[in-house]
Amino acid sequence: MTDLVIRALDTSDADLFDTLTDPLGARAGHRLTTHRPDWKRVALRDGRVVARGAWWGGPDDTEPVNLNWFDVAEGEEEAGAALLRSAPWQVELELNLPPAWRDAPALRAAAETRFTAAGKAGYDLLVERFLYRWTPEHGLPERPGRLVFRAEPDDAVFFDALRRIHSVTLDAHALKAIEEGGLDRAAQEELDFFHWCPSPREWWQVAHTPQGDPVGIHIPAHNPSGPCIGFIGVLPDQRGHGYAYDLLAECTHFLVEQGAEFVAAATDQGNFPMAANFAKAGFPVVKERLNFHPVR
Known about the structure:
Blueprint (H helix, E strand, L loop, with lengths): L3 E5 L17 H4 L10 E6 L2 E9 L9 E7 L4 H10 L5 E6 L7 H16 L2 E12 L13 E4 L3 H12 L5 H25 L8 E4 L5 E10 L2 E9 L8 H15 L5 E6 L3 H9 L4 E10 L2
Parallel strand pairs: 4-5
Antiparallel strand pairs: 1-2, 2-3, 3-4, 5-12, 6-11, 6-12, 7-8, 8-9, 9-10
Helix pairs in contact: 2-3, 4-5
């Protein structure tokens, strides 16, 4: 086997990235994503692309937030691993796959090639997630009308709520943050993400019962690809009443009232209660995402 050449791209040769086949439909999935040419890297053998990666970040970020496009040709797992190891950024890897990909042999084989390459490069699987995309033909979810929603300008209120919510969380990223730095770190990471989003801070809302008792928070947001459910969280002492659905319905209505023509969302596959709420609210699963993080 001939030697491998790994190189970054720029505006003059960015089209080289597109010469590798796309069995998992990454191009269609990233139709709203802007990737910088200089954050794209390829591995070539005999001048042919056998692995590629596109790192991604917001328009003002100086370094990538994650790697969200990673492809490896069949039998080139070592090349894919070398591409990841040689990159100047060791950030989380997101692999977006078609729904029920395990049931289609060709899709499963392509996915497992990428998993193997990631593993060889020192990435471990953190969590599998469902990705949702609501559009108007699914109908707006009914507002139960049980809660009162209002904006809250004080970040400390959200920080406290996030600490309480994450004390009993099922979210894998929050659990990782708690393991590494406690509840304060988990809450701060959420706040940092909400502030990073280009949507207005004034959109963040706290939910109360009609009697004034706090129930939870919801964060309608825009990420660089469009409108999304930023966060839904019910306080521990208010669980058991189905309030997460109320928060999700309100968040969806809010974004549509701001002009959203679609609403993206995601939840961990192991978070069965939240997945059920998304189904009830008319959010179809459009992709499955596997998140890997570098550990070696």
